[in-house]
Amino acid sequence: MDEALELARRGLGRTSPNPAVGAVLVRDGSVVGRGFHTYATGKHAEVVALEDAGGQARGADMYVTLEPCSHVGRTPPCTDALSEAGVTRVVAAMEDPNPLVSGRGFRRLVEAGIHVEVAPEYEEEASRLNEAFVHCMRTGRPLVTLKAALTLDGKIAAPEDNTGWITSERARAHVQQIRHESDTIVTGIGTVLADDCLLTDRTGLERSRPLLRIVLDSTLRIPLDSKIVRSAAGDLAVMTTSASAAERRRALEVRGVKVLVFDGPGGRTDPRKLVDYLAAEQYRSLMIESGSKVNWAALEAGIVDKIYFYYAPKILGGMQSLPVAGGSGRRRRVDAIEFEGVKLHLIPPDEFAVEAWVKRP
């Protein structure tokens, strides 16, 4: 199962909207087949492992990181392929949270005379590997992660000169890996105007779908000659309001930018409508990389599921340096947004990241 999980990791960023799955076939104490899923091939991990094993699959045990599917999607059911190949035992790390499967795969295997086991000691690791997919299957919404680089006193920007980086190259490389595993990324117009950013996946690794870049821009101030607009290739959307000029919308659309009109309170865009839109389009994850105002707007709207805060051993101080979350904030300590499941990730030599989930009522 350890090897199956390692195989599954090779599919990260390459399987969405499907989960990353790894499978290993063992016969007479020896590995006879291995496989992992990528969306491009269309074949599930179980089928790849069966093809790798050939005739040696008959009488073998399969170790797989997720319950085999039992329904017809892009491919026939994996349960049928396992039965036809003569596999006698299936050990899975976890049940598939997809309502179309969710125990049905196990039942189909048992009905076919295949012995089924679940390895509970691997469930947490398997679930974490596919946390966006699991979250989406259980809630119907993409997993929303708020990422920020901070000084030790919680500042993300200085009041005057913001050239250079808060965190190290090593920390930024870690961020790129998380970006690679995300389906979509969001920032605000303030960040685009200040940094003329691209928001691309710079890992160079294969993806199952382009990273959808989204800019929140209530009045469409985004420059038509900005780097992000000039690089649009069906992978850029601007979220605006009905108050934005129709001619500006058309100018962006001509340049290959998708314009989303989602009105919210106070003449601003509504991030909750964006999450609903992404869910309908089968995007499994959303990463927010923005400024103080957008960060607070997302937190206050209740769309953030988890945070990933990268801390550098620095202090900016002052009352004008921007905090990670600005806006009106909460007026009382008892109303603070709480977090749970906190994990600390050390980034040698002197940085660290805090990962935590928003505590839901």
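The record above closes out task 2.4. Task 2.5 opens with a second protein, given below.
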Amino acid sequence: MRIGMIGLGRMGMNMAKRLLRSGHDVVAYNRTPDKIDQVVKEGAQGAGSLAELTKALPVPRITWIMLPAGSAVEDHAVQLADILSPDDIVIDGGNSYYRDDKRRAQILSEKGIKFMDVGVSGGIWGLDAGYCLMAGGTRETYAYLEPVFKTLAQEEGCLYCGPAWAGHFVKMVHNGIEYGMMQAYGEGFDILKASPYSESVDFAEVAHLWNRGSVVRSWMLELAEDVFIC
């Protein structure tokens, strides 16, 4: 498929690269042109504006906003509402507040434009390992975009969560769990550091150990192990 990627930060850039590596066509736009030049070298087509990006896309146009939550997403969504045509698709893959999705979906739907909110987890490692995607919108639109989602995601790593804003609601809960886990790990290792055993216990070895059959094993512990080794 041919998709317009808006925003080439650490997430958007790697997602564009993963799509390109799997045979999709990418038209890329970013506020700063150096990022556009970088992804063009990977095989994408660059665009100097949102209008130029949309003109380079076939109908129905697929645009993916990958920007920081808040005014940046709002501004681009409003601009796209004026540029795109009925049956075109806008995807917000950032960490937007789900109530904002509800308003943006309404603004776009009034012009016949379809909207999907897709929570994305996986960080910079998603380029090679694949992402976890939580999607909200209509089932019809999800089914149409499934080739894109399956390319970006790990195996069984994409899920239709319900109507517009359901994807970001699930991602919000995911983030709450993530931060709680980080806090728990942080407090646990801090207790070890303050204990009489801080000199005899290697934190990297503990993190490695806990990922071998323990109920607290996780990818976060793998990342913690790498940090402790450094």
